[in-house]
Amino acid sequence: MKKFNVLIVGGGSTWTPGLLKAICSRQDTFPINRLVMYDINYERQKIIGEFAKVLFKEEYPDIHFSYTTDKEEAFTEDIDFVFVQMRTGGYEMREKDEKIPLKLGVIGQETCGPGGFAYGMRSIRDMIQLVKDVRSKTKDAWILNYTNPAAIVAIALQQMFPDDKRILNICDQPENLLRSYGRLLNMNERDFDPVYFGLNHFGWFTHLYDPQGNDKLPELREMILKNGFRPADYEQRDKSWLETYAMVQQMVRDFPDYLPNTYLQYYLYPDKVLKKLNPDFTRANEVQAGREKRVFEDCVRVAETGTAKDSNVVANDAHGEFILIVAESIAYNKGDNFIVILKNDGIISNLPDDAMVEVAASITSNGPRPYAVGEIPTFYKGLIEGQYAYEKLTVEAYMEGSYAKALQALTLNRTVVSAAKAREVLDALIEANKEYWPELR
User: Fold this and answer.
1) What amino acid positions are annotated as catalytic residues?
2) Which residues contact 101 (CB under 8 A, 6 or more apart)?
3) What topology is assigned to 2-169+283-313 in CATH?
4) 319 among the known binding-site residues?
């Protein structure tokens, strides 16, 4: 069985230990020869990298592991897979993404609304450069991208590299939801055959078939309406995530046709959600005081003690496992079904062909083969068309350096709506992002 050479871009992420643990767990199904972690932040990556050395010594001694901030060392001709999870600007800029809009009276969230707009404008530059760096060395490596906001990034990469068929944008939130459904029904998430449509962080499950062909969605809907909804790993989740999942009950009550992605709360109930958000302590602060602190402290302890056997840094990590099982399906032409982000081209017949939609697809060594969705109802079509217009205008604003299109994008976003408020927020975000964004004229 071939062993693969893998590059992780964004090695200093707090999600990386879960990915490293998943690599150990799946060494028999996705064997790796060489693993390199790359990050521009040496100090953050060093903490994870030293943890990895101990973990691999105990659980995967055959792997050749290193971490670096040197592009020449990281990007090589023999890479098979690149796993990308960058955060341009780090948590310092995430905090501004969340707090600036909130202090101006609109939703402040990492990937949704003005915060997602700001993050997307920063991510585009580095993701384009990342693809160029990889392709300067190899045309064959698969680039599996987690970098957010995945919807905006996907549009930008499709425009810049329309003929590159080895870039696949993915998101672990549908996978997290499948795991949560599985816990409620006492089923393995991989046993579901899901039907899903939408945009990234803006979609719905329409059916969830079990191995016998029974649609479990009606049963799940009744369970959620009666008992509420929690993530599969709720014991390890921060408070804001529990509140996010709890909102699914109201969304299902108001719109019972389908089961929604949790992020839709920001677009369907912006006033209600806004009242619950604290402009002085956002999710960025919660992560830094919670998951990030726990992960880094445990990684340091493992490096100091020389053993990862009692490490509790990883629990039910969909993020780490999902990207690996997608890679396995590509590597071995397995054709397994996953929810991924693809150019529409008729998949959803009454949406624009150039939209980057999130749908179920069979993943093969020749790329994704999506399952047709057909026409979607007017309500969902209207929501998606407005959101896609916002995403497309965001990319155009970046590519053209257009203030007018940036203003149009934010005015269209359902978390903003007011053109006057959009201008106020945009001007504040421009000031905060001077070193990251192109000049908007």
Assistant:
1) 172, 263
2) 107, 108, 113, 114, 115, 425, 429
3) Rossmann fold (3.40.50)
4) no
Q: Does residue 318 surpass a pLDDT of 90?
A: no
Q: Give bridge partners of residue 4 from the DSSP assignment.
A: 32
299 marked ligand binding residue: no
Instruction: Label residue 233 by pLDDT band (50, 70, 90).
Output: confident
Report the distance separating Cα 63 and Cα 37, nearest Å.
Answer: 13
pLDDT tens digits for 399-433? 999 999 999 999 999 999 999 999 999 999 999 99
Residue 299: pLDDT above 60?
yes
Contact 52, 65 (CB under 8 A): yes
pLDDT at position 315 is: 58
The answer, as to whether pTM is greater than 0.90, is yes
Q: Which of 219, 79, 97 is nearest to 144 (CA)?
A: 79
- Record the tokens describing residue 107, joined without a space: 């939703």
Residue 201 assigned ligand-binding role:
yes
The answer to whether the annotation marks 188 as part of a ligand binding site is no
Domain ranges of the chain: 2-169+283-313, 173-185+204-273
Tokens 């408070």 belong to: 239
H/E stretch holding 143 reads strand 142-145
Using a CB cutoff of 8 Å and minimum separation of 24, what contacts does 246-255 make? 247/273, 248/224, 249/224, 249/225, 252/221, 252/224, 252/225, 253/225, 255/379
